[in-house]
Amino acid sequence: MSTSTIHDIGYRHYEGHRLGRAYVLRSMYVHNLRAAFGLGRPARAKVMPFLLGAIMLLPAAGSVAVYAISKEPDTLIRYSSYAATLQVIIAIFVATQAPVLASRELRFHVVPLYFSRPVGPLDFVLAKQAAMATALFALMALPITVLYVGGLVTRIPDSGGHLVRYLAALAGCVLFALVLGAIGTVVAAFTPRRGFGVAAVIAIFMLSSTFVVIVQGLAEMRTDFALAGWAGLFAPFNLVDIVQVRLLGAESSSVAIAPGVAGGVVALGLCAALVVASTAVLHRRFRKAGLS
């Protein structure tokens, strides 16, 4: 028979200050935000987010340069229409980065390790959604800020009016970030493979936009402009644009807009429902993964 020996290797109970749940939540948020831009990861992980960020900045810089030469206010891109104009770039950013935040832990089966700490599935989900929304907000708000600062430096007239429109556009960026980030993380969380996640997110944006364009075209052919406006609720970019136009006083960037303030309220309610529903779905998804 073999004998067993217990060795004292110096382990001692930790009796100091514990940082707790709030610190863990903040750490997860910072980690996911860095991951969205490839920070702390290999160089190839930084290429796509920073390339897309540079592409987002180019039209703003060019618009400011043209205005500085021509002094024509119309040469500056409207703040509220910037995201809609570059929605393809934003959609690609969501599609490429959402799987990084939402599916890596699922792919490597490490979700139970997170839940072994004083953090639950809801904290885990909120940290990821907040990081994705922050990354998207930075992607959209930075070029809008370049437009605004460039206008001030080149002494654009009616600076007070531009400030109001700039702040309204920032509010729109917040809404864009919440809605697009919620959709992207939910879709990406249901496929551990990153390539499938990218394709699925792109497909959601493309199919919804195509469906809305077709419905709006058919409605306008029948002169049913109200239906054409309400159809915009079913495409993410149109949905947020309705809120910007009806509740924030922006100019429309879409083919048709839901009528009246009621249209804006309905669109805002749908945005809130999307964010809440995505949180609930992700909570269930990661809770189930944490138990497996």
Automatic annotation (TrEMBL):
TM helices/strands, residue ranges: 47-69, 81-102, 130-154, 166-190, 196-218, 225-245, 257-282
Keyword Membrane recorded: yes
Keywords: Membrane, Transmembrane, Transmembrane helix
Domain of life: Bacteria
Protein name: ABC-2 type transport system permease protein
Species, as recorded: Actinomadura viridis
